[in-house]
Amino acid sequence: MAQPALIPSRWEDAPDQGAPQAELLAGLAAPEAVISPKYFYDPLGSKLFEAICALPEYYPTRTEAAIHATHQQAIAASVGQGCTLIDLGAGNCAKAASLFAALQPRQYVPVDISADFLHQSVAGLQERFPQLPMLPLAMDFSTTLELPASVDGQRRLFFYPGSSLGNFDPRQALAFLRRVRAALPPGKGDGGILIGLDLVKDVRVLEAAYDDAIGVTASFNLNVLNHVNALTGADFNPRDWRHVSFYNARQQRIEMYLEARRDLIVRWPDGRRTFRQGERIHTEYSHKFTEQDILGLLEQAGFGNCRMWFDQRRWFAVCHAQAR
């Protein structure tokens, strides 16, 4: 599942990506319609994603949390204490908060596209950790990582959990990691990245995680249409669509779509599109990785000294790599 501020591969040619309305309408007008998964995260979408993380089928969140808990001291020894912890796609901030005791960050910078949800989360977190300086940043980091001067420049650690990197295609993933590297100090070893990545595994496990029995993931996917309506003035009716997801073994990725239940016309100011029954809107890719995939990407992006920690089934990996 996507964390906030991620872009599927077909999106890269959309004009004016800084304007949500233009971006969305360009995607809807494309020969194969697409909605970026960053638009999953309106307030309801953020809550639905929290619910997904608690589902028995959705293993990534609890598996990654178990790795953090089991290997916390080893992770802290690799990272060191006193970092500037920059949490990309922070959501409810719970994943980063679970590492505060071990990492003892000097500053916590949660970054998320859903501004209201982010500020609510940080307000509650600041009450629990009143001595830790917190600087929430509401921004779309999918195309830029230009951080304000108020973000401490020393010993930056970019925290990117949840296998959100998998929402990029391999070329985009490499470009993103290079932007992270460029946001670190130029010196070798001064800063790094702590990243969670979902690994290739049994297709039955993968497909169940993205199509749960009670339909929370379907609701999450369909809710993006409500967000599109709010941002563009379109008249999507989510009841006209169904959730579709499957694992593409050749591409090592889950693919997620919305499929029209009938022939229909969707209208928005100054535009419209006819969708035929069975026609799909692409909403997410979630690439899965091998260990060699991970090492290769990090090395090409300018990182080295990579350490990895796994769960017992080796379903998921947490990696710390230093700038080089």
Write up what this structure looks like.
- The protein is α/β, with parallel strands linked by helices and 324 residues long.
- It has 2 domains: 34-56 and 209-287, no CATH class; 59-201 and 289-323, Vaccinia Virus protein VP39 (Rossmann fold, 3-Layer(aba) Sandwich).
- Helix content is 34%, strand content 23%.
- The protein is built from 11 helices and 12 strands.
- It has helices at 20-29, 43-53, 59-70, 72-79, 94-97, 100-103, 115-128, 170-182, 203-209, 216-232, 291-301; strands at residues 84-88, 107-112, 137-138, 156-160, 192-198, 241-248, 253-260, 264-268, 271-275, 280-287, 303-310, 316-323.
- The two termini are 30 Å apart.
- Keywords: Methyltransferase, Transferase.
Distance between the termini: 30 Å
Ranges where pLDDT stays below 50 over 5 or more residues in a row are 4-18
Overall tally of structural domains: 2
Mean pLDDT: 92
Largest sheet entry = 7 strands, mixed
User: How big is the Rg?
Assistant: 19 Å
Specify the structural class: alpha/beta
Strand content: 15-25%
CATH architecture title of the largest domain: 3-Layer(aba) Sandwich
**Backbone shape:** globular
- How are strands sequenced across the largest beta sheet? 3-2-1-4-5-12-11
Query: Topology as H/E string?
Result: HHHHEHHEHEEHEHHEEEEEHEE
For CATH, the homologous superfamily of the largest domain is named as: Vaccinia Virus protein VP39
- Multimeric status of the protein: single chain
> Which percent bin holds the helix content?
25-40%
In CATH's first tier, which class of the largest domain applies?
Alpha Beta
CATH topology of the largest domain: Rossmann fold
GO biological process, one term: methylation
Organism: Herbaspirillum aquaticum
Domain Histidine-specific methyltransferase SAM-dependent: 22-322
InterPro entries: EgtD (IPR035094), EgtD_Methyltrsf_superfamily (IPR051128), MeTrfase_dom (IPR019257), MeTrfase_EgtD-like (IPR017804), SAM-dependent_MTases_sf (IPR029063)
